[in-house]
Automatic annotation (TrEMBL):
Belongs to the FAD-binding monooxygenase family. GO terms for molecular function: flavin adenine dinucleotide binding; N,N-dimethylaniline monooxygenase activity; NADP binding. Keywords: FAD, Flavoprotein, Monooxygenase, NADP, Oxidoreductase. This is Steroid monooxygenase. The keyword Ion transport does not apply. Its cofactor is FAD. The keyword Oxidoreductase applies.
Amino acid sequence: MFDTPPEAPSKTYDAVIVGAGISGLYQLYRLREQGLRVRLFEAGNSVGGTWYWNRYPGARVDSQSYIYQYWFSDELLQEWTWSERFPAQAEVERYLNHVADRFSLRDDIQFNTRIRSAHYDETRGRWTVTSESGESFDSQFVVMCVGGLSAPIVPPFRGHENFKGQIFHTGRWPKEGVDFAGKRVGVIGTGATGIQVIQTIAPTVGHLTVFQRTPNYAIPMRNPKYGAEDHSDFRQRYPALKARVQSTFAGFDYDFHGKPYREMAPEERNRVLEELWADGSLSMWIGGFSEVFTDAEVNEEISKFVRSKIRARINDPAVADKLVPTDHGFGTRRVPLETRYFEVYNRDNVELVDVKAERIEEITANGLRTSAREYPLDVLIFATGFDAGTGALTSIDVRGRGGKSLKESWSKQVHTTMGLQINGYPNLFTTMAPLAPAAAFCNVPTCLQQQVDWINDCIRYARAKGASTVEPTAEMETRWLTHHNEVANMTLVPKTPSWYTGANVDGKPPMLLSYIGGVGAYRQQCEEVKASGYAGFAIE
Ligand code: N01
């Protein structure tokens, strides 16, 4: 039943994958290995996904390189060497290109092809996927690997079109780069992206104006270079690391500190916090005290610790007042790693504007006007983030049973079954979609590989059974949504507005978009579904 009929036109596939990032490439490898006729469509002109589009100055991964990779090939693990602990964008992009070449993945990828719609035909149990240029493809399965942070947001400031200088969004950075020498540059946004851009360009621009709405906590990155000894050490540890990352809270090789914070004497707490801080990684956040997510008092103590670290690095107390976060607790929004970020504000050529105190009113021909004054600019950079979790999927016109639009359905309530499938959309699978840990609370490659493997196994199971459709039941979906929300509401995170809760997009229904029950626990639940013969999924 799944075999492609011999008379089928060349644009008929068993599976279509959308997106050639970390999950799309791996999904292609796996489904092809299973013998499916697969085609992957990618809007860009090469592979890399996030690491293709986000080539802004300073773009760098916040996960350690030795766990930011694929585990499926021992040869790949043995031959690839990472240059440092937290590599820059170009190195991760090179790695993903190497993987694409090493496994001849490009043979089945069509580049420069943005998918506009995916419509399900109930009578045939198949999808029609159509590109922006109007090419249509017919497929049994569709796997959307479109990313959780890939639909950029440019706030609709008045006068955007009048600006005479250059405007960029970090998530659509030009390949040829941008020359900042001597220029007056403005950056809007101080999230993980803004921080990386600001600390990188501050020494090279003529003048930098940072428009900050919400100050962020950030941890100083410790980024040693790796040599031959490190590489051989990692190679020996890879099997253990591969197993380890699948069971921890956030898919890293570290996990929460075992001892409860409240059971420690003040000196011991301080010692542990200092050790975590000195590690220079995200372990301070998702490998420190779990109470940071659940106990407001403990969170406040840890927040105070971090605030004092930040304040100590800023010369002008008035500037420090603007930069030290007081309106939310440490770790309730994404905590970035930084490299001499706070020292940037000690420079003469850098000015910090608090846009809560002086609102951005419009972009003018020569710069940006707030309620206080006009700031003359040659270049304006939007580090204003993404329509997270849902944006990349809803930008495609996805229609399931009865022509039901996913965008419309999610405008009222975002729902998925474990972030893997959606009731009403048979044979459609998703990676990095809402209600799974991937977008917010996971070392992304850990979660994406787990999801791809689950999808691959599920498709194999359905084919072996001779079934033509796979779809979660409505009951299963409701059960997962209820569980997701229960776990979310046990934490402090939904109380703090950010992209985690959809608060950065007007009109988005407020909810914690990513599952916060832990990567290990999520994986276990996915495994249980598989072991039960996919209980909660109709495979017929
Ligand atoms: O986006 P963000 P991002 N007027 O949404 C501000 C991942 N990532 O691209 O906080 C003024 O976090 C907004 O202000 P506020 C990581 O998961 C990973 O930085 O809403 N300001 C905020 O400061 C990260 O969390 C890595 O008040 C406006 C900023 O723009 C995710 O991507 C590196 C505004 C947006 O911050 C997204 O990060 C980089 C307006 N109208 C990113 N609208 C690594 O692992 C928005 N802002 C290396």
